[in-house]
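Changelog-linked ticket: coenzyme A example.
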Amino acid sequence: MTETLTSTKLVTGLEGVVAAETRLSSVDGQAGELIIAGFPVEELAGQATFEETVYLLWHDRLPDAQELISFRAALAARRDLPPATLDLLRTAAAQRVAAIDALRMAAGTLSLQGADDPEQQALTLLASFPTIIAAYGRLLQGEEPLAPRPELGHAANYLFMLFGRTPSPEHVRGLETYLNTVVDHGMNASTFTARVIISTQSDLISAVVGALGALKGPLHGGAPGPALDMVFEIGDAANAERYLRRKLEQGERLMGFGHRIYKVRDPRAEVLSAAAARMFQGNGHQALYQLSRQVEQTAVALLAEYKPGRNLQTNVEFYTALLLHGLDLTTDLFTPTFAIGRVAGWIAHCFEQQQLNRIIRPQSVYVGPKDRSWTPLRAR
Ligand code: COA
């Protein structure tokens, strides 16, 4: 149902404003429930390959065996980057540009592939992200980029291109669980950005580049790096309360906590903490996992004390940090890796927006003066 109304009521942060109908995901912030194209995140995340999840979002159903083979092949055929993209990444690495900015600039160069057709652009964007990020990660370490391996799946190939070795099944499962978990999440800031851009009848690459800009900010996708830094700085559970209290006393935000929609623990935190625990079984990260649990408990208790009634709970980013660290990713690559998953959601939202498009164009309330008189430059 759509409603047409002209209101001068200001809703800061557009909180509670419904901007679209979607079949892609449902976020219930009171119940702590996330449904992705009909599946509870708990059911989908740990079982689907990332390609199956993307197909589900783009086609509103799971693929059969043949469709999945074709989809995987279509992506694998588009993993190579144009030479100009690699040149740009080399220049960016020489200047130590942040990885998320390098990804944004490189995503823009995908227009050089010459595909105007939205379906081709969608496949190219999805397929290229892991190649861009892995190439950039290696260039930052002074290593040469590695060519993609077409026989590997999307997640496994990303890990291969980063580290130059075939990843373990546990690591591939951990990464697929992560990518599935973050693939879509209602009308979040970057998804809204993508929908606004595509609603002007712009193209998918432009929409995705804009969405990357929105994702970068620490209030959205930029939180996991600082969340992990915080756990490392705490170092020992005995320091947690003193450290966190000091941050809150100084008016700082605790990264990885609080959410516009969730007023209970983000269900993705549970999926990712369980995935991290499975992945860490028997390796050196066990102690870090225990420390993170203790930091989480202390943080939630202190947030209740300092911000009573706000229901500030753990969000997806806290355990994203732990899981991606467990995959040996450096913190600089956390937000770009989030984008490897979320780009599929942005594209799905763009397709949805295009189906019933009306330009997204809200209003503002003017609060400035209306009676200024012009002073010539020489008289100012
Ligand atoms: N640490 C400390 N205080 C927090 C907080 C956090 N992580 N998140 C919210 N608050 C406080 C705010 O300071 C504000 O307090 P006040 O009313 O005393 O001024 C109150 O809780 C409400 O915050 P508000 O900014 O209005 O909530 P929001 O819905 O606009 O913001 C987030 C949601 C996610 C941006 C916010 O919770 C946040 O900044 N979290 C940390 C960053 C993060 O983890 N982002 C990833 C999101 S998935």
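Closing comment: Example verified and attached. The mean pLDDT is 94. The first helix runs from residue 41 to 45.
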